[in-house]
Write a structure and sequence with these properties.
With 198 residues, the protein is of the alpha/beta class. It has eight helices and four strands.
């Protein structure tokens, strides 16, 4: 579910509560930051920040960081009802280590997702809820593949492979010991023996 509508998020959480009473895993993977890029704005995406529209910043924060925060806040009571539950936020390494080739808005939004992960971990730990961020590599989504000629896909990951890693992470008996950490999908794939390329 990807939405910027807080009421839809609350309604969805209400449905989970009515049907299950609790939530084991929340994956924050909402990201509107690629909307303009997916519409063909390759030049705009690679322009200096002062040449990029403010709408790009707004999309990354409203349809990314804010959506993750709202969904986590709404779902936290459901997660706190079950043992060994988790929030997994899909982020990107640009948040931890800025490269001048990456956009300013992009790096800032991903850093905010990373900080959100760490801050939530501190407050949820008492209830045994883990909060981790994962860094996938280049993931072969439809949006990415339209720019395949610009990208080195040799070490890329499939969306299904990333999903398998998160599923394995969710049932790791050591999950709570990982809370507050930022984990690389490739390293987790090796840890769990998961194929992320297919």
């Amino acid at each position: 579910m990807i939405t910027r509508d807080d009421e839809q998020v609350r309604a969805f959480a209400g449905r989970i509560e009515a049907e299950s009473g609790a939530l084991h895993l929340l994956v924050n993977n909402s990201w509107a930051g690629y909307e303009r890029l997916n519409a063909g704005e390759w030049t705009e995406w690679n322009a200096p920040f002062w040449q990029q529209p403010i709408a790009l910043w707004d999309a990354m924060f409203d349809g990314g960081v804010r959506a993750h925060y709202v969904t986590s806040a709404v779902c936290a009571p459901l997660l706190r009802r079950t043992a060994a539950s988790a929030i997994v936020t899909v982020s990107m390494e640009v948040g931890a280590r800025h490269d001048p080739a990456h956009g300013v808005a992009y790096s800032t939004a991903k850093a905010a997702d990373d900080r959100l992960t760490v801050a939530m971990a501190g407050q949820l730990a008492v209830d045994g809820v883990a909060s981790v961020a994962v860094y996938p590599g280049l993931v072969r989504t439809e949006g990415v593949m339209q720019f395949a000629e610009h990208l080195d896909l040799s070490a890329s990951q499939s969306p299904e492979g990333v999903g398998r890693v998160i599923a394995a992470l969710a049932v790791d008996p050591q999950l709570t010991s990982l809370t507050g950490q930022i984990l690389h999908v490739a390293e987790l794939a090796r840890r769990y023996g998961v194929n992320v390329t297919d």
